[in-house]
Amino acid sequence: MIDSMVLFFTTNFVLYALVAGISLALVAGPLGSFIVWRRMSYFGDTLAHSALLGIALGLLTDSNPQLSIIVSCLVFAFLLTLLDRRPSISTDTLLGILAHSSLALGIVVLALADSVRVDLEAYLFGALLTIGNADLIWVLVVVSLVAIVLSVFWNDFVSITVHAEIAEIEGANVNRLNLILVLLIALTIAVSMKIVGVLLITSLLIIPPAAACSMASTPEQMAIRASIIGCVSVVLGLISAFYFDVPVGPSIVVLATLIFLAFYFYPSVLKNRN
Amino acid sequence: MSIPDSSANTASDSTSDVHAPGILLAAKSINKDFAEKRILENISLTIEEGQIVTLIGPNGAGKTTLVRVALGLLQPDSGAIYHRPKLRIGYMPQRVHVEPTLPLTVNRFLQLANRQDKVLLSNTLKDLKIGHIEGQQLTAISGGELQRVLLARALLRKPELLILDEPAQGVDLAGQAELYQLISEISDRHRCGVLMISHDLHLVMSSTDEVICLNHHICCHGKPEHVTNDPAYLSLFGAKASQNLAVYTHHHDHEHGIGGSVKEHKHD
Question: Do B103 and A161 touch (CB under 8 A)?
C-alpha cells in the first residue's frame, strides 16, 4: 500500500496536481479569510460564475482560454466594485442576478459554439489531474503575485476590514485597497477553475478559514491555519480520489467540510483562544 | 435652496483667518443634505490647539454628520473644510462592530494604528489602564473597556486633533467622569485639540472650552456657562436640564479626593 502510494504521488500528473493544489490552498487561506470577514462569499461565487462566461468569450474570440478567464474575472470584479459603491441598489439581489445570468450565458454560448468540444464538467467541477505544464505555470505565477501583494498590504487590508473609517483617517486609501483585494480574489478564482471548478471555488476559499476561525486569536493565526487546513484537504482529497475513484475537486471540498465540521462541533480540540 | 445668512450661525469669530498658526481645523459655511433634507445648515467652527470643543444636540441633529464632514469622510454640498497641513487626527467612531469570525486581540487591534512604536503602545495601555486586557478578544471586553481601547487607538497616532463621537457611551457613571477627565488631561498634556460629541452634558461642561449646541444649524455656542443660559439652549433641552447643570458648572480650581477632601490643582 505504501509502495503504491509513493508511486501515485511521484507520477507526473499527480505531482502537478499536488503542487498546483497546495500552492492554491496556501494563498486561499489568507484570501479566503478576508472573504469570510467581509462577508463576500456571494461576491466570490459571482466572480467564479462569470469565469465560465470568460471561457465562452475566449472561445468565440479564439484567444488563450486561461487569459480570457483572467481578463473576464478582473473586468467583472472591477464592475462589481463600482456597483458596490452605489448603495441604493441591493447588492445581494444584484449579485444573485449577475452570478446566475453569467453562468447561464456562459453555458449557452459554449453550446452554440459547437465547432469546439468543451468539457463543461471539467470547468464546473474541476479537473485537477488533467492540468499540464502551462496550467501549472499560470497557477504558480498568479499565486506568487497574490502572495507578494498580500504580504505587502497585509496590515492595511486587515485595518480596512476591521474598521474602514478609522483606517481612512489613519491614511489608508480605502477604495484603492478594496479594489486591490477584490482583484486578488478575482485572479485566484480565475486560476483555480481547473482545480476545483466554477461551482466549488468559493468553498475552497471560505471553508478552511471558517474551520480555522474558532481556534485563532489573531487574524494572522487564522490565515495561516486556514492555509494548513486547505493543504491538508488537498492532499487527503487527492488520496481519497485515488482510493475511491471519485472526482478530485469535489473530494477536496468534502474533506475540507469534514475538517470544518470537526472543529465546529469540537472546538476544544485545538482551541487556544484567550 | 437659499442659505440663510445669519451671523448667529458662526461658532467662532476667528473663521476669517483659518491659516492662523494655532488653528487645527476650520469649517466654513458647511451645508449638507441627505435625501432632500437639510442635515447641516451653514455651519462654521474652528478648533485650536489645546481647545476642547463639545457638540451637543438632540438625536438626529446632525452631530455625527458634522463630525464626518470635519474628518473629511463626507463631502459637504457646499462650504469648505480646512485642515492644518499634515494634521494628524485621532478618530474614535461612535460604533465599532467586529465580525465574530475575525479573531482580534486588543493588542493586535492597537497595532493596526502603529506597528513600530512598542514603547508608545505599552505606555498608552498603561495610561488608559487597559494593560490587563491586552491579550483578550475585542469581542469579549466590556463596553467601557472597548471605549478605552478605541481612545488608545486614536492616541497611538500621536494626534494633534482628537475627534471623538460619544466617547463615553456604554461606560458606567463613575467611568464616564473618569474618561472625560482623562480626555481633558490628554488635551492638556499634548496640547491637542478635541472635538467631541456628547450627551453627558453635566459631565462635559467642566472640562469644555467651547460648547456648540447643534440642531441642524448652530443654535448657540460659547462657554459652557454661557450656553446653558442661552434661550436657544433652554428651548432645546428645557430649563430642568439647565438647573441640573448649574450644580456642576462651578469653577474647577481644585479636585476632590475619594473622601471628599479638597486637593489643590495647579494650573500652568
Answer: no
* Residue A219, domain CATH: 1.10.3470.10
Whole-complex ipTM: 0.85
Asked if the Cβ–Cβ distance from A274 to B135 is below 8 Å, we say yes
- Whether B218 has a pLDDT exceeding 80, the answer reads yes
Identify any residues that bridge with B151 across adjacent strands, giving them in sequence order: none
Are the C-beta atoms of residues A223 and A158 closer than 8 Å to each other?
no
Minimal-distance CA residue of chain B relative to A30: B102
Give yes or no for a contact between B14 and B23, defined as CB atoms under 8 angstroms apart.
yes
- Which residue ranges in chain A fall short of pLDDT 50? 271-274
CB contact under 8 A, A166 and B73: no
**Domains in chain B and their CATH numbers?**
15-88+159-248 (3.40.50.300), 98-158 (no CATH)
Contacting residues for B114 by C-beta, under 8 A, at least 6 apart: B120, B121, B156, B157
Beta-carbon contacts of B190 under 8 Å, excluding residues fewer than 6 positions away, are B158, B159
pTM over 0.80: yes
DSSP state of A244: H
Note down the domain range covering A106: 2-269
From the list A168, A213, A221, the residue facing B73 with the nearest CB is A168
Q: Does A274 map to a domain?
A: no
The pLDDT value recorded for residue A265 is 85
Structural element, H or E, at residue A21 = helix A12-37
